[in-house]
Amino acid sequence: MKELEWLLLASILLSWLVASMVLRLVEHWQLVQSPTYRSSHVLPTANGGGLGIVAAYAPLVAVVAASGAGRPDIA
């Protein structure tokens, strides 16, 4: 179970790192949503932070699936 805990921690940290880098790039490239009268936000909002979460999480899921970690032993 220790391997899964470390992979979860690595996933969280990597997601945070990649998402922050993506948001910086999005702001640099000015890929932001400007608020309109129908918006729920009042400041321009950067898009694309979820891309960092997927980019960090997907490879770790693949590693866990390939290693067989977390599978119950079948007797």
Large-scale geometry:
elongated
Task: Summarize the biggest pleated sheet.
Answer: 2 strands, antiparallel
Helix content: 55-70%
Strand tally: 2
**If you compute it from the alpha carbons, what radius of gyration comes out, rounded to the nearest whole angstrom?**
18 Å
Per DSSP, the total helix count is 2
> How many separate structural domains?
1
Query: What are the segments in which pLDDT stays under 50 over at least 5 consecutive residues?
Result: none
Strand order in the largest sheet = 1-2
Spell out the helices and strands N to C.
Answer: HEEH
Structural class from helices and strands?
A: mainly alpha
Mean pLDDT: 78
The fraction of residues assigned to DSSP E strands is: 5-15%
Terminus-to-terminus distance: 18 Å
Topology, element by element:
Elements: H1 2-28, E1 32-33, E2 45-46, H2 49-67
Antiparallel strand pairs: 1-2
Helix pairs in contact: 1-2
Provide a descriptive summary of the structure in words.
With 75 residues, this protein is mainly alpha-helical. The protein has one domain (2-67). The protein is 61% helix and 5% strand. The protein has helices at residues 2-28, 49-67; strands at 32-33, 45-46. Strands 1-2 form a two-stranded antiparallel sheet. α1 packs antiparallel against α2 (49-67). The radius of gyration is 18 Å and the shape is elongated. The model has no long low-confidence stretch (mean pLDDT 78).
